[in-house]
Design a protein that fits this description.
The chain is α/β, with parallel strands linked by helices. Helix content is 45%, strand content 13%. The termini are far apart. The protein binds 1,4-dihydronicotinamide adenine dinucleotide and uridine-5'-diphosphate-glucuronic acid. 1,4-dihydronicotinamide adenine dinucleotide binds next to helix 1 and helix 5. Its EC number is 1.1.1.22.
């Protein structure tokens, strides 16, 4: 039986480790964060991800899943080591590989046999080759070999467990036959399930990851720009997306207009690939435009709110209720969430801001200290809406479907609803109580009859 080590227990490492343990592999997950490891050893998931805690507890019970802060232990007890640490953006947009190199140095220091080293983290092209070179040097004069592979992760937060159990594809970049064979063993279940596999070299595999995320970001920015135009010319963005999506070559996915993409990956990965382009003398104009359009989208949303509710020419004295802080539903992650920019924009224009989010409030209080004392955290949607002039729905949490529009509206000073996700675009009831502003159609001129 193969022993698996995973270094880094974030959204990717933890889910990956838990899923592999459910296939019966003996998995050790390692992290430098002692508090996280302590919680994990008690069977608690440090992140909110549907289905994860059950999987963790089952692995712990069966004895196939263990957690440690000891790098030596994980390196020496594993046949295959997955690197799943963060690769955040630096100030200049390039990927910060500090954590990756910390891990690689630990592997070089403690390696005690032949190992397969697999990058799951998203790393700029050339990084795996550098890791191969570094470990090769470290192992000179020993009988050991480090077989390096790139195996990018494509899971989505909020669906991380199901995406890991049934991935869209498995991409394996490797020159070494040992690495390929090891990964075929680890992913035997996916091979049996006929999940598509792509074998390629290290560089191509690294690029596939950035290419995929950048392309999705381009798609979102494209539809968002058309949404802004649609609001001016009387077209309806959702119907445009439907019409475009009927063409198989375009596909209907990732054409949902909104306040701009966020999360820990699209913003940083688009910047990182532009940086790689520059360093190699190739300006990536399309990706750069997607980044610029995303920034524009967020500031346009602030202007839209300002124009609609500054009946006396200012946002000063207006209270705005923000529903949803996380960058998408079913996650507690607020990294690069568009809600942050919109809150800052509204505060900058003098509005008072109240917020409610089913999962993101603890994180916001911790990670956005500059907002502390400037926004009011609320216990639920109703408390947030109370005495507000407008509600701005930033994240499409399903629980928002359960609210009573009448109750909300009656508790507010004014009844304006900005639906940044078009969650209620087809809902007649909300229009009985609110002046309703979706993204990408000419509301509130969009009448009840048209909505039917
Ligand atoms: N979050 C996501 O949905 C996806 C992320 N990715 C990529 O996967 C990588 C990891 O992302 P996340 O899981 O979101 O990151 P994360 O920030 O949630 O977790 C990273 C973990 O690595 C740990 N760490 C840092 N230095 C370490 C060291 N020297 N040894 C052991 N552990 C260490 C941190 O304490 C943290 O727990 C990134 O490159 C990201 O771009 C890829 C696909 C999806
Ligand atoms: O590399 C990563 O980390 C991951 O990044 C994204 O996954 P994730 O960030 O979890 O979330 P998405 O569902 O892709 O959404 C990203 C952002 O785009 C926005 N979005 C998405 C789709 C859409 O049509 N419109 C839109 O505005 C979402 O609201 C969110 O803010 C990719 O979808 C994953 O395949 C990839 O593995």
């Amino acid at each position: 039986m193969v022993n698996v080590g995973v270094m880094g227990t974030g959204y990717v490492g933890l889910v990956h480790g838990a899923v592999l343990s459910s296939y019966g592999f003996r998995v050790t997950c390692m992290d430098v964060d002692e508090h996280k490891i302590e919680r994990l050893n008690q069977g608690f998931s440090p992140i909110y991800e549907p289905g994860l805690e059950e999987l963790l507890q089952s692995g712990i019970r069966k004895g196939t899943l263990t957690f440690t802060t000891n790098a030596q232990q994980v390196v020496q007890s594993s046949d295959v080591l997955f690197i799943a640490v963060g690769t955040p953006a630096k100030e200049d947009g390039s990927a910060d590989l500090t954590y990756v190199w910390e891990v690689v140095q630990q592997i070089g220091k403690y390696i005690n046999g032949n190992k397969v080293i697999v990058s799951k983290s998203t790393m700029p092209v050339g990084t795996s080759r550098n890791i191969e070179g570094y470990l090769g040097n470290m192992l000179k004069g020993t009988p050991y070999q480090a077989h390096v592979a790139s195996n990018p992760e494509f899971l989505r937060q909020g669906k991380a467990v199901s995406d890991s159990l049934s991935p869209s594809r498995v991409v394996i970049g490797a020159d070494s036959e040992e690495a390929v064979q090891m990964l075929k063993t680890v992913y035997a279940t996916h091979l049996e399930q006929d999940v598509p596999f792509l074998f390629t070299n290290l560089e191509t595999s690294e690029m596939i990851k950035y290419a995929s995320n950048s392309f999705l970001a381009v798609k979102i920015s494209f539809i968002n720009e058309l949404a802004l135009l649609s609001e001016k010319v009387g077209a309806r963005i959702q119907d445009i997306a439907t019409g475009m999506g009927m063409d198989d070559r375009i596909s209907p996915h990732f054409l949902q207009a909104g306040p701009g993409y966020g999360g820990s990956c699209f913003p940083k990965d688009t910047q990182a690939i532009v940086d790689v382009g520059r360093k190699n003398g190739e300006e990536l104009y399309v990706v750069r435009a997607a980044i610029a359009a995303n920034e524009k989208q967020k500031s346009k949303m602030v202007s839209k709110i300002e124009e609609a509710i500054s009946f006396d020419g200012t946002l000063k004295g207006k209270t705005i209720a923000i529903w949803g802080l996380t960058f998408k539903p079913d996650t507690d992650d607020i990294r690069y969430a568009p809600s942050y920019d919109i809150i800052q924009g509204l505060l900058g224009k003098g509005a008072a801001v109240k917020v409610y989010c089913p999962q993101g409030m603890k994180q916001a209080a911790r990670d956005w200290p500059e907002l502390s004392g400037r926004i009011q955290y609320c216990g639920n949607e109703a408390e947030c809406a109370q005495q507000a002039d407008a509600i701005v729905l930033m994240t499409e949490w399903e629980q928002f479907r359960g609210v009573s529009w009448e109750r909300m509206a009656r508790s507010m000073r004014r009844n304006v609803f900005f639906d940044m996700r078009n969650m209620f675009a087809g809902d007649i009831a909300i229009r009985n109580w609110f002046q309703y502003y979706p993204v990408g159609s000419m509301e509130h001129g969009y009448s009840l009859r048209e909505a039917q």
